[in-house]
Amino acid sequence: MEEVAFTMQLRPGVAAEYQRRHDEIWPELSALLREAGIRDYSIYLDAASGRLFAVQKRLPGHTTADLPATEIMQRWWAYMGDLMETNPDNSPVVQQLTRVFYME
């Protein structure tokens, strides 16, 4: 299974709303992520900085590159866009991280 990690940035003062929206994640979005091959997805918050740290585990042959073109993902990005730094297409600004250590 492939594992990727990345960061995103919340706007000041929106952490509780970000949490609330994820507590009520749309079932169709969860289904879409699973269909794309994501089997484990965690997002952590550094409350002091508003920095989000995300980790995804993906099946071989995953289709996550196709997610941005889906209507559900476009709606989710628009819904979340007021809470975080975004690109012109409403996708979150993502900083990919490089693994420097792993212990099993």
UniProtKB/TrEMBL annotation:
Keywords: Carbohydrate metabolism, Cytoplasm, Isomerase, Rhamnose metabolism. It is an enzyme of class 5 (isomerase). It comes from the Bacteria. One of its GO terms (molecular function) is L-rhamnose mutarotase activity. Signal peptide: none annotated. The keyword Isomerase applies. The keyword DNA-binding does not apply. Its EC number is 5.1.3.32. NCBIfam families: YiiL_rotase. This is L-rhamnose mutarotase. The lineage of its organism: Bacteria, Pseudomonadati, Bacteroidota, Cytophagia, Cytophagales.
